[in-house]
Amino acid sequence: MRRIRFTNVICILGLLAGSALAQNGDPGAAAPAAEAAVAELGGRAPAIEVQEWLRGTGFTAFEPGKIYVIDFWATWCFPCLAGIPHLNAVHAKYADQGVVVVGLSSPDPRNTLEATRQMVQEGAKVRDAVHKMEYSVAFARGRSTWDTYARSGWDESIPHVFIVDRSGRLAWHGHPAEMDQPLAEIVAGTYDVEAAAKEARRRAELERLAQPLIQQATVALRAGDDETALRLIAEVTAMDYRIFSNMATWRYTRMVEIGRAAEALEYGTALVDQHWTEPRDADLHIIFSRRILASSAASKDLNLALRSAKRAVELSKRRTDALVTLARVHFERGETSQAIEWQEQAISEANEADVEQLVRILDAYKQAPGR
Q1: What is the pTM of this model?
Q2: What is the CATH number of the domain that holds 305?
Q3: What phi-psi label fits residue 148: left (phi over 0), alpha (psi between -120 and 50 degrees) or beta?
């Protein structure tokens, strides 16, 4: 859910995948054979084929009674490396509850066994930090596992996580930033795999129906026809404001950028107050409010950003990333005292791996001019 601006056909079609923190996999991967195995939600999860285990205890089959979190990643994928602390936190939280976290690196021209082994040993350098993987890490034998799991409906962008439940079924897949709630339910035994599989089929059908509209919108954008592009994307988002949340966010920000602020406010208000109202929508509010902050438009609506950020805190039950977002919105509004207050609350709720970075942000707020 996060590729916001689409200025070419690759970008706009990429919005369907849902993950802006993701990067595209190897475009040169071989096409699957017609009779090849398929990874389907609710079905038996195919085994992963490993050339070498680089960290942790290896396995050749999913053991009944255990839950497996399989993270597809690569050494060249910055969002993958930035997400290592999150996977470390998942490993620390659930290891004693039978959850096995595996980072699965697959060979491609830019991702070799040697590079992966070195990164596992030395850690991944991300800005001014070094993230070491505390969970199991494996290097895949060829591309067969990647290809098999790609036939689950995964668009082959990474990072991407697959969760295998205690019965060996493929229970969930998506961006790791969105896995915490389904993983908690899978661990608790309350997750409805059949309902998830039904929803996945519905999503795939909607994406199929949306594709020609998106292609037409791309053509319109290239021709400078914002009116047609906005109308077509409105048709797409009306199919499902959650599935096409990225499209909805783009439509809002585009209207702001071209001076249609009143229409944008009406549309954005409907997103915040009518369409994204369930706990599962907390991520959508975080993305939406951050996108407003990131806009270069002089008329960006910090009031709407604040409402959306507050809704994220409410729906997520005070999740750390929601608290951090709310603090940032207050800071951008010039409300430094409130920013400090919310950032301190975020630090109190944060995983140990994230505290240092959050403290640096807090210090920046405290040192802001005019405080």
Answers
A1: 0.70
A2: 1.25.40.10
A3: alpha
